[in-house]
Amino acid sequence: MATVESKYIQQHLANERTYLAWIRTAIAIGGVGFLVTNLHFNPASEVSDWADKIVTAIGYLSIVLGIFTLIFSTISYLRKRKQINEQTFESSHVIVVFLTVCMILVFLTFFAYLLLR
């Protein structure tokens, strides 16, 4: 028996692939935080207190940004699923702009770490 979703199989599959790409992105963003923190805080390195604080901020920012990416991508996936079924699809730009601004902040913080190191 055909369902509403079966009429738009290709669109739903593309929506799922996009969602999985956002999940991979969230994992990578969180991983950057762990990587930077682990590379900085090792027994062989002694750096300034400022560098310690910046690296800690990078770690926290990356993890929080990864969590927000998971939340917003899930909301976006569900919204798009509904819009595809209702044929009212509108592309969303909010999540892209938000994540771009957040990643710029993470990169600027990392740049500050490199300058103070």
Automatic annotation (TrEMBL):
Domain DUF202: 11-82
UniProt main location, coarse: membrane
InterPro entries: DUF202 (IPR003807), IM_YidH-like (IPR052053)
GO cellular component assignments: plasma membrane
Organism this protein belongs to: Bacillus gobiensis
Alphabetically ordered keywords of this record: Cell membrane, Membrane, Transmembrane, Transmembrane helix
Protein name per the record: DUF202 domain-containing protein
Membrane topology: Multi-pass membrane protein
Transmembrane segments: 21-41, 53-73, 94-116
